[in-house]
UniProtKB/TrEMBL annotation:
Domain tRNA(Ile)-lysidine synthase substrate-binding: 264-326
Coiled coil, from the record: 224-251
Keyword Cytoplasm assigned: yes
Catalytic activity: cytidine(34) in tRNA(Ile2) + L-lysine + ATP = lysidine(34) in tRNA(Ile2) + AMP + diphosphate + H(+)
Record-given protein name: tRNA(Ile)-lysidine synthase
Residue numbers binding ATP: S36, G37, G38, A39, D40, S41
EC number: 6.3.4.19
Keyword vocabulary terms for this entry: ATP-binding, Coiled coil, Cytoplasm, Ligase, Nucleotide-binding, tRNA processing
UniProt note: domains: The N-terminal region contains the highly conserved SGGXDS motif, predicted to be a P-loop motif involved in ATP binding.
Role this protein plays: Ligates lysine onto the cytidine present at position 34 of the AUA codon-specific tRNA(Ile) that contains the anticodon CAU, in an ATP-dependent manner. Cytidine is converted to lysidine, thus changing the amino acid specificity of the tRNA from methionine to isoleucine.
HAMAP family listed in its UniProt record: tRNA_Ile_lys_synt (MF_01161)
Native organism: Microbacterium capsulatum
Length: 331
């Protein structure tokens, strides 16, 4: 008898993983799947198990136990057991979440990424994350609500290499959440539903459960896809801007005592969007801090609206006009 046709949802998720792996400039010997046990990461793990086996790549999952909920060790063990059932290795990593002013969600994320980063560096392997098109749409919507600029509206990158050399890959950014659930059902995989994902105390949950459905109902279907397209277009624009900046910056930047300086005339000759990006990039590269929109504009006024104003206090540094240059100096 002929084989039964492959379930469309399973086929879509597998194709997304296959495409992501094929797009890498070098084929890794090992890939890591960040597995929470939820539908998105479970569907990703199943597809990765299939595609990695076909490509001769070793794959294993890492489940981070944040130890923030009763029974979290049991939930992590169950996720690990499912990964083993898929034919890939599995590791559970318990972490301690340190409380900061960023809030519990951000604190848990920081601890999770730190754990994944350490394992990825040890294994010299990229990490596959289960973020979907819906997650991307929520990220863009929240960035828009905060007025945090084009950087936030770019959403999550499909592939990103961080400062520690770890490569983060999101194969499912073009796949809907309903598809990952359908893929799990088709493969007989029962996902775990994190109660935090339905807790309205979290801003992202309110965007998911309340705001996006209203937009879909009032403006018509396709809002999530439109938001994801917006992110993709803005990333393309950002890449073009970054290329222009790197071509420009070598000619206008000089090292200064305890910092760095930029030609005011060169900044003035550039359009505002490019000028502001140069300012942010210089500060980020030299002092490791990001500037807000307001701070960036204040620095730009040293170029465009110079009236003898004094130094500007910025995170980790100061900016001042000295002659024909803007000098950024460590505090």
């Amino acid at each position: 008898m002929p084989d039964a046709p492959l379930n469309p949802a399973v086929a879509e998720v597998r194709l997304a993983v296959r495409t992501a792996l094929a797009a890498l400039p070098d084929r890794p010997a090992t890939v890591i799947v960040a597995l929470s046990g939820g539908a998105d990461s479970l569907a990703l793990a199943a597809a990765t198990a299939f595609e990695a086996r076909a490509a001769g790549i070793r794959a294993f999952s890492v489940t981070v136990d944040h130890r923030l909920q009763d029974g979290s060790d049991r939930i992590a063990a169950e996720a690990s057991k499912k990964a083993l059932g898929l034919g890939i290795g599995a590791l559970v990593q318990a972490v301690t979440v340190s409380a900061t002013t960023d809030g519990p969600e951000a604190d848990a994320r920081a601890a999770r990424y730190a754990a994944l980063r350490g394992i990825a560096q040890r294994e010299d392997a990229p990490v596959l994350l289960g973020h979907t098109l819906d997650d991307q749409a929520e990220t863009v919507l929240l960035g828009l609500a905060r007025g945090s600029g084009a950087g936030s509206l770019q959403g999550m990158a499909p592939v990103r290499t961080d400062d520690d050399g770890v490569r983060w890959i999101r194969p499912l950014l073009g796949v809907r959440r309903t598809t990952t659930r359908a893929a799990c059902a088709a493969e007989g995989l029962e996902p775990w539903d994190d109660p935090h994902n339905a807790d309205p105390r979290y801003l992202r949950v309110r965007a998911r459960e309340r705001v996006l459905p209203v937009l879909e109902a009032e403006l018509g279907p396709g809002i999530a896809e439109a938001l994801a397209r917006t992110a993709e277009q803005l990333r393309e624009d950002a890449e073009a801007f970054d290329e222009m900046i790197h071509e420009t910056i070598e000619d206008i930047v000089e090292h200064a005592e305890a910092g760095i300086s930029v030609s005011a005339a060169a900044l003035a000759a550039n359009p505002a969007a490019l000028r502001n990006r140069i300012i942010r990039l210089v500060v980020q590269s030299e002092f490791g801090v990001g500037l807000t929109r307001r701070q960036t504009v204040e620095v730009a006024r040293l170029v465009t609206d110079w009236a003898g104003q004094g130094p500007i206090d910025l995170p980790g540094c100061t900016a001042a006009r000295r002659g024909g240059r803007i000098v950024f100096a460590a505090r």
